[in-house]
Amino acid sequence: MKFIKENIQVVNEKIENAALKSNRNKDDITLLGVTKTVDTDAILEAINCGITNVGENKPQELARKYEVIGDKVKWHLIGTLQTNKVKYIIDKVSMIHSLDRESLCEEIQKRAEKIDRKIDCLVQVNISKEESKHGLEVEDAIEFIKNVSNKYKNINIKGLMTMAPFTANEDEIRKVFRGLKDLSLEIKNLNIPRVTMDELSMGMSNDYEIAIEEGATIVRVGTSIFGKRNYN
Ligand SMILES: *Cc1c(COP(=O)(O)O)cnc(C)c1O
């Protein structure tokens, strides 16, 4: 699996260059290895090559891999989360990137309270307004976050997450990332209790360099590290 090491080197170099270009410190950007459909041997190899955070989009898949790998790496849940699946991951994740509705907050609160944990979450926002994209509308995000802060004491909101539109148009992608950054600054200024806006999870294999230029602190990279996914 030599290609994993080489791929990670290439991605790290590109992260460094994008950081330089935008006057940022590369150490302020976390490379999240997206490991959906990737087997545990490959994940362990990535950990050996310096990956410290991985993201899964299916709760049961995360739980299954956690049984093998455990706390050698930090686990992130990056996909749409059904409330009835929260129980599989609540004691394993270091961050949930897809907080997008109150019913999910209720369930996370209930489960987190039971095990006496605070859960770091990002609020997913649908900046691009694509029908197919999950996440809150921009107009609803602030009310949602205020409400979470009021009602769900075991949820700490650390920032925002978004998905760029599926397009080759760089300007369009950049506009979406910039929109997320602007929204996070607006929220930061409100000084809402237990809400910080230190994390911006945005950018995937195709667009993480643009995301870094626009302020991403977490880039979610799968294909460029592990190769094309095999969904069999
Ligand atoms: C699959 C996935 C990624 C990674 O996509 P790549 O194009 O393979 O880098 C990032 N974020 C989310 C939410 C994903 O589901």
What do you see in this structure?
The protein has 232 residues and is α/β, with parallel strands linked by helices. The chain has a single domain, classed as TIM Barrel. 43% of the residues lie in helices and 19% in strands. It contains 9 helices and 8 strands. It has helices at 2-21, 40-48, 59-69, 86-89, 102-114, 138-151, 170-188, 208-213, 223-226, and strands spanning 30-34, 53-56, 74-77, 93-99, 119-124, 155-161, 195-201, 218-221. The protein has an 8-stranded parallel β-sheet with strand order 7-6-5-4-3-2-1-8. Helix 5 (102-114) links the parallel strand 4 (93-99) and strand 5. The longest helix has 20 residues, at 2-21. The chain is globular and about 50 Å long. The two termini are 20 Å apart. Residues 34, 36, 57, 78-79, 204-206, 220-224 line the site of pyridoxal-5'-phosphate.
